[in-house]
Design brief:
11% strand; two-stranded parallel sheet; 2 helices; single chain; 8 strands; alpha/beta
């Protein structure tokens, strides 16, 4: 079973997420980007480990050659099915944007935790107050 079967030709595929586990069945030449944005391929960095993001565009700098299950011939090579603008991150179809992976912002640590300091201060005041009561009570006698 193949994850991606394309039997027509001259189709244009872009802004899709492909999580392939097998080589696609593609019979003809197709276009895999729109001239500036391609598709997310889950195995992109595995196949092209030296690929890098171009600036902060979310696009990779190495074209993704779409392998085909059906053996290519001299007149029909794999290289004719190429995503020239592969995405480094999945495409968020609902937001119609690349889903950039940004680290969650970390909260800055507080200079001192207010609750434990308040509890410790109240306890210190209570101990000093009780100590003063005991001291003055003994002093009267």
């Amino acid at each position: 079973m193949h994850d991606l079967d394309v039997y027509g030709s001259n189709n244009r595929f872009y802004q899709n997420n492909f999580f392939l586990t097998d080589i696609p069945d593609i019979l003809s030449d197709n276009f895999w980007d729109n001239g500036s944005v391609g598709n997310y391929w889950s195995d992109y960095l595995t196949r092209y480990p030296n690929a890098s993001e171009i600036g902060n565009t979310g696009r990779g700098d190495t074209p993704y050659i779409i392998e085909r299950h059906i053996l290519p011939s001299l007149n029909d090579p794999d290289a004719e099915n190429v995503d020239y603008y592969p995405l480094m991150y999945p495409y968020d179809i609902e937001k119609d944007a690349i889903a950039f992976h940004t680290p969650e912002p970390r909260p800055e640590p507080e200079p001192f935790p207010p609750v434990p300091v308040a509890v410790a201060s109240a306890a210190a005041v209570a101990v000093v107050g009780i100590g003063l009561l005991v001291y003055f009570k003994k002093r009267k006698h």
